[in-house]
């Protein structure tokens, strides 16, 4: 019994990999629900099994081959890859003031949301999107002296503070 792959590796969720298994009658994960496993073809003594990552990032499973009457043999461990963090950035990171009724536009890259920490101080509108960049216009609607932090975020990552904006 042998496998063409014996080193541990990771697959992104939704990605697939095909093993070539020779001389074994079964190929199975040690833990169910993390990878979908299916036999895709057979050629002579070789059987090809495709695995697809369906579990959550960080989960893993050992894969085993066997023949009747012999103990299962571990081939390798496959892990669902943790996605690379998305880099979020703003063209403005210093605190500043905006006169009541006036507006300012932020260029935010990589984030899926941009929000004030306190409502009623600034009106926030998404103006346009170009590639990975989104332009948000804020308009001062609060009273002079009021201020709020602005924050950007993307799913599965901590929210990042952009800056504090005051009404002047």
Order of helices and strands: EEEEEEEEEEEEEEEE
Task: Decide which structural class fits the backbone.
Answer: mainly beta
Tell me the strand percentage band. Answer: over 45%
Mean pLDDT: 95
Q: What is the percent of helical residues? A: under 10%
Oligomer description: single chain
Global Rg: 26 Å
Biggest β-sheet: count, sense, barrel? 4 strands, antiparallel
Regions with pLDDT < 50 over 5+ consecutive residues? none
Report the principal-axis shape: rod-shaped
The beta-strand count equals 16
Tally of helical segments: 0
Distance between the first and last residues' Cα: 75 Å
Strand order of the largest sheet: 1-3-6-5
What does this 3D model show about the protein?
It is a single chain. The model has no long low-confidence stretch (mean pLDDT 95). The strands form 4 sheets. This protein has a 4-stranded antiparallel sheet, with no helix packed on it. A 4-stranded mixed sheet has the order 2-8-7-4, with no helix packed on it. The protein has a 4-stranded antiparallel sheet with strand order 9-11-14-13, with no helix packed on it. It is rod-shaped and about 80 Å long. By secondary structure, it is an all-beta fold. The protein contains no helices and 16 strands.
What secondary-structure arrangement, pairings included, does this model have?
Layout: E1 2-3, E2 9-11, E3 16-22, E4 26-29, E5 35-43, E6 46-53, E7 60-66, E8 73-80, E9 89-90, E10 96-98, E11 103-109, E12 113-116, E13 122-130, E14 133-140, E15 147-153, E16 160-167
Parallel strand pairs: 2-8, 10-16
Antiparallel strand pairs: 1-3, 3-6, 4-7, 5-6, 7-8, 9-11, 11-14, 12-15, 13-14, 15-16
């Amino acid at each position: 019994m042998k496998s063409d792959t014996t080193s541990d590796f990771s697959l992104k969720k939704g990605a697939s990999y095909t093993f070539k298994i020779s001389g074994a009658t079964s190929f199975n994960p040690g833990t169910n629900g993390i990878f979908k496993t299916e036999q895709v073809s057979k050629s002579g003594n070789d059987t090809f099994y495709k695995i697809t990552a369906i579990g959550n990032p960080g989960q893993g499973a050992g894969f085993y081959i066997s023949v009747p009457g012999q103990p299962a043999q571990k081939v390798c461990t496959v892990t669902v890859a943790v996605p690379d963090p998305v880099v979020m950035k703003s063209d403005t990171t210093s605190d500043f003031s905006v006169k009541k009724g006036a507006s300012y536009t932020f260029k935010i890259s990589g984030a899926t949301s941009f929000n004030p920490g306190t409502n009623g101080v600034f009106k926030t509108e998404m103006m346009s999107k170009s590639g990975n960049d989104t332009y948000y216009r804020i308009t001062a609607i609060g009273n002079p002296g009021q201020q709020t932090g602005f924050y950007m975020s993307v799913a599965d990552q901590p929210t990042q503070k952009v800056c504090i904006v005051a009404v002047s």
